[in-house]
Amino acid sequence: MALHLRDRLRPWHGVMLVVLLAGIAVSLSRAEALTRDALFRAVLSGLFGLVIFQFTVGNVWGYAVEYYNTGGEWTDWPFVLPFVSAAVGGVAAGFYVEDPVAGAFTAFWVFVFVAAVVAVGSWLVVGYREADA
After folding, report:
1. Quick one: which of 35, 67, 78, 82 could link to 72 by a disulfide (CB 3.0–4.6 Å)?
2. Domain presence at residue 80
3. Gap between the Cα atoms of 19 and 62, Å rounded
4. Predicted local distance difference test score (pLDDT) of residue 11
5. How far apart are CA 19 and CA 54, in angstroms?
6. In Å, what is the CA distance from 38 to each residue of 17, 27, 29, 31, 35?
7. What percentage of the chain exceeds 90 in pLDDT?
8. Same domain, 78 and 42
């Protein structure tokens, strides 16, 4: 049985293609003239945007799916805490520095740090519960 490409593509691949094309389009819209160098820079810009998108959104989505797959609910406080912390930290940094990019950067790293703290804390709590059993 031969597998066709359409059987292997998922909606996520479509989202990534849209992000890539959007990055290329934004870069081309900022170019003064459509030259080979401008097109090359636009493709590199689109690829860079895709890597950033995949790294951020892909990791956050992976965090959510893994939490849910281990029996958690998306309304649990340990799951929501990194998102709330990231939103508060990102907005605060964005207003303080007056730069939305700095706010987004701060939000991402606050999310990573708080998610790590919650994961380690959960791991310790589960370990102590299993030791008492």
Report:
1. 67
2. yes
3. 18
4. 81
5. 10
6. 20, 8, 10, 6, 5
7. 45
8. no
At which residue do the structure tokens 């870069």 appear?
A: 27
Q: What distance lies between CA 120 and its chain's CA centroid?
A: 21
DSSP state of 108: H
Domain of residue 16, residue span: 1-58
Structure-model confidence comparison of residues 84 and 57, the more confident one:
84
63, part of any domain: no
Measured CA to CA, the distance from residue 11 to residue 49 in angstroms comes to 18
CA distance 11 to 17: 10
DSSP H helical ranges for the chain? 5-8, 11-30, 36-69, 77-97, 100-132
**Contact (CB, 8 A) for 45 and 19:** no
What is the pTM assigned to this prediction? 0.66
39 near 28, Cβ under 8 Å?
A: yes
Higher pLDDT, 11 or 114: 114
Residue with tokens 């912390």: 85
